[in-house]
C-alpha cells in the first residue's frame, strides 16, 4: 500500500523519499550524490526538503514530456 507524500513535513527522511518515489535506498542516495535531489545533513541525519522532492519530480516530468 502506497502512502501519499506527507504534507505536514518540511524535511523528509530517506525512507519517506524511497516510498514516495518507489526507489531503493541506494538509488535515493545516488540521486543525492549526483545532486539531482538536494538534501541537507543535520548531524548524521540526512533530510530532503519537501520542496526539493517536488522540484525533482517536476523536472523529471518536464523531461519526459
Descriptive overview:
It is a single chain. The protein is an alpha+beta fold and 65 residues long. It has one domain (11-64). The protein is 49% helix and 17% strand. It contains three helices and three strands; from the N terminus they run βααββα. A three-stranded antiparallel β-sheet has the order 1-3-2. A hairpin with a 2-residue loop joins β2 (40-42) and β3 (45-49). The radius of gyration is 11 Å and the shape is globular. It starts with 10 loop residues before the first strand and ends with a helix. The model has no long low-confidence stretch (mean pLDDT 91).
Summarize the structure.
This protein has 3 helices and 3 strands. Helices cover 49% and strands 17% of the residues.
What keyword list fits this structure?
alpha+beta, 65 residues, HTH_17, DNA binding, DNA binding domain protein, excisionase family
How are the elements arranged and paired?
Elements: E1 11-13, H1 14-21, H2 25-33, E2 40-42, E3 45-49, H3 50-64
Antiparallel strand pairs: 1-3, 2-3
GO molecular function, one term: DNA binding
Domain Helix-turn-helix: 12-59
Organism: Streptomyces pratensis (strain ATCC 33331 / IAF-45CD)
Strand content: 15-25%
Please give the largest β-sheet: 3 strands, antiparallel
The number of strands is 3
Number of domains: 1
Taking all residues together, what is the mean pLDDT? 91
Q: What distance separates the N and C termini? A: 28 Å
Provide the spatial order of strands within the biggest beta sheet.
1-3-2
What Rg do the Cα atoms give? 11 Å
Shape: globular
In N-to-C order, the SSE pattern is EHHEEH
Amino acid at each position: 500500500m502506497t502512502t501519499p507524500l506527507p504534507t505536514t513535513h518540511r524535511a523528509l527522511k530517506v525512507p519517506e523519499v524511497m516510498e514516495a518515489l518507489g526507489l531503493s535506498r541506494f538509488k535515493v542516495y545516488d540521486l543525492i550524490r549526483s545532486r539531482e535531489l538536494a538534501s541537507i545533513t543535520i548531524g548524521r541525519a540526512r533530510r530532503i526538503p519537501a520542496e526539493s522532492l517536488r522540484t525533482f519530480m517536476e523536472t523529471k516530468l518536464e523531461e519526459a514530456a
